[in-house]
């Protein structure tokens, strides 16, 4: 028999070999019941909820994360191993039973702190101690008292006073003056003192008396 005649049989055999495991896997998954896994994640040393915990089934592409109050809910299959991970806490694994009567499982999971002791690390911006000493000696240090004296100078204080907003007392005084002027305007426009003859007579009498002379 020629090779070209055997080629279709070889292809059919190879296709059957690859198709058989996938069919058996699909059958296994169909036989497993879907379970709704839900629960709350807490700290081991308190009753505080842990939000943002990564919850997933390895190599299955299914996962979720705990919410603001540590609550989570996700579908799993019977026999799945669910992993809980969070930075600074020890990883935990929950094994779903192979046979579950109900279609729901509720958990209250506590996660312990994962303490890792690190060796002491000395961080220096200079490769050697000699270069560090030379840099310290060559450093130009500004006297802090000179900065304080410059900030407390009369010119600087006057500049700050001009830029400061009005105080509560000043705002109240301006408000009272505005209310008084508004009440005066209710009975007509305010007279100009420069056009008041009585004001001019008082001014002339004060000049005659010598009230405006410098003492």
Automatic annotation (TrEMBL):
InterPro entries found in the cross-reference section: CarboxyPept-like_regulatory (IPR008969)
Signal peptide span: 1-26
Pfam families, alphabetized: CarbopepD_reg_2
Keywords: Signal
Name of the protein in its database record: Carboxypeptidase-like regulatory domain-containing protein
